[in-house]
Every structure is written in structure tokens, then in C-alpha cells.
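Friendly challenge for the regulars: who can give me the C-alpha cells for this chain first? No prize, just bragging rights.
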Amino acid sequence: MPLGDLVKRPLFLVVLVAGLLTTVVVQAQLSRDFAGEFLGTPGGRALVQAYGALKTGYLEDVDDEVIIRGAITGMIEAVGDPFTYYLEPRDAARELQDRSGSFEGIGAVLTPYNRQTGRGVEILNVYRGGPAYEAGVQRGDIFLEVDGVNVADATTTEVVELVRGPGGTTVRISFLRPGEENPVVFEIVRATIEIVNVSGAIVDGDVGYLHISSFGNQLVYEQLLETIMRLQLDGAKSFVLDLRDNPGGLLTQGILVADEFLERGDIVFQRARGVTQRLASADPSGLVDAPMVVLVNRNSASASEIVAGALQENARALVIGERTFGKGVAQSVVSLADGGQFAYTSFEWLTPERRSISAEGIVPDVLVTDSRLAQTISVEGRGGDAGQTITILIDGVEVGSSEVGEDGTFQFVALGRRPQLSEIQGEALVDLEGDDILLEAVAALRDGRVADAGAR
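First reply, four minutes later:
Bragging rights claimed.
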């Protein structure tokens, strides 16, 4: 692989043209007089009449933005498509910032403290060298206040809104720290934080492990190249591309990643309103030709399924793991006048063999259950007397107990352990012995099964 070739220009031009065509189509659609068409229908006039009645006759003043956003979300609910959605202006701005590959913040990963309700926020990881790390913030710290605002029962999104801000400004955060009697308080100066979605490590002596957590960052492909080069210098002779728990993201990044491992063949087709066309094919430059395995699980979706399907059907890699999610449709995004974004399903992805991913997903060549997934046990029941203890057994092994309440009900929840993450961005922490899918991948590389992948 040429070390200096960061972008394959022929493919990049194909992707760029596809993006421009999509933009032209959207603009052409919006150039129609939809307002006139809307008011020309009884339903359209009825909606305007209802709006006017609320504005003039409702008991209390109504908020225009609340009503209009309610109408938008109502349209989405009527369509009944889980992948068509509306982002409010602040959420749209944050997503745009994340796609750029960096943001202004403190350099920490946040996660819900209560994984059942999604309420409360704790620190999942702190990046070494970042503002939070230098201030002394630790994994497991639980947010109490941000700049005087009580966030003990807030969502992760709400806390992120408060924690992020212009670089060079200060945010004051108080945490509940396990083992500490009083809250710990930090004043942290925000800085530019790079979003790193690619991490790597050497496994079993000479296997290069590559993990892509998301394709939602326009720097993913560059980060992949940097990680591959680092692993090659460390002695990698084969590669494992881990796409487990990858929800997808930018199409361009998925295509570039797939193409880095392909010398020839189609990457992805798209179908829109009955018309199927080739969207991208492999460019032979910049090839990584070492033996490789791709890892997937039930949470691998969208762009990660495109990559896995392209490498599998071009007989480039053995795919190991669980059947993927099956998110085979894509959205066009319209920037709205209020600063929000409206994303609607506009076409369907097809694999190189023109097979639909929707609902079916990618079926691995070797099926292995993901042993890393945290197992959450939840039991609710009724019966017994108030104050009695209910013991929960699984296969004869006690996993916990619950006390019957005054109303005769009981509840038991055992949450799985949280994943361990490296404090160093770009460094993967790998538990080879506790990861059945990765163990199978290394075994496949060692016993020659990967070399036979083209025989399918």
C-alpha cells in the first residue's frame, strides 16, 4: 500500500459526483411549488385552518415552534418508517460538528448511569492528555451539576449540550465519585477534541486488529490508513477488521474503507423507485492485500454492512460473527429553514451480487455468538407476602434476589459490565481469551481457512 496515497482520486470523484447528483435531485424537488400544491388540497387547507384556530382561539398562547415541530413529527409517524426522522436545530448542529471529525469539549466519553431509564450520566472513559484527564476526572464519575445546573437526572444529550462549548472557555462540573463522601468539583478549560473512530492493536504476535466504531466521521478513512501503517510497522502480516457494534454513518467513508482492501469488483449498488444502478466499484490503487477476516454482530448496521458485504461477496475476506442488523436503506437529508434537519428514506443499498440488506442483514461465513456483549437480566413478578425475599436462579445458579413490596410485586435487574476502553485514542484494548468471535478469527487466519474464502 503506498503510504502517501491518502485518497484514491478516481473513486473519490465517483463519490463526489454521486453526492452532487443527490443534492441536485433534492434541490429540484424543493423548487416545486409544494406550498401551492399543499394549499390546493382539502387536507392541506384543513391543517392551516387547525393552526389558525389554535393561534386565535386556544385558551392559552401557543408556541409556533412547538406546534410546527409537532406537525413535522406527526408526518414522520404517519409514514411509519423508523429511519425517517427530524433533528431539532441544536441536535443538527451537533451532528454536523461530529461529522467534521472534531468538537470543542473536555475529552471524555459519557454514558447513561441508569441503563434502564437513560437518566443520569457517568464518565465511561477519559482520553489521556485531554482537558478532563489533566483536571483529574475519572472513569465512573457521575455528573451532579454543570455550571450550576442540576443534571443528576438528565440525559446524556442534555449533559453534552452543557459540557461542550467554545475552546478556551471554562466549564465547572461537580461529580459524585464512588468511595468519596463529598462531591468532587473541577473547573475544566475546553479544547478541540479529535473524534477518533479507528483503533488498532497487534494480536497473537502478528495479527493486525482494526476496530472501526462508526463511519459517522469524515476522517475515518484517513484514520484507518494511519492505523494500518502503524500496525504494519509493528509486524502485522494479516488483518482482522472489527465492525461489531458499528451503526454505520457516512456512505463515502464506508466505500473508501471497503475499497482499500479490494483490487477489483463492485462495492455497492443502490435501488430507488425500482431503478438499480452501480454506485461504486473498486479502484486497484492503494491495495492492502494481506489475508483478512471481518467481524460482525447483531449491532453492525448500514455502512458497516456495506463494507462486510462487499468484502464477503468479492471473496476478499472471511466474515465471522452474528447475522447483522439489516439496515439496508439510506436517507437524503434536507436542511430546514429553522436550522433543523429532515432525513427521509430515499433509496436502498444492494450488495455486489445485488442482494438487499434490508431486514436480512449479512450472514457470516462462520456463525459465532458474540461473547463480549454484556448480558442484562431483568425479572418482574407478582406473588408472595410483603417483605419476603425472592431468589433468582439461572440454571441452578443464584444470580441475585429481590424483596417483595407492599403491593405484592418484585423486580430484579442485573446489568452487564461496561466495556473497558483505552485512555489513548486510537489504541484498542483486546481481550482475546474472552472474545469468542475474535478467537475464531485468529484461528481462521492460522489454519488457512481465510485463503479458501474465494472458494465460496
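Residues 9-30 form the longest helix (22 residues). Residues 1-29, 452-456 have pLDDT under 50 and may be disordered. Your move, everyone else.
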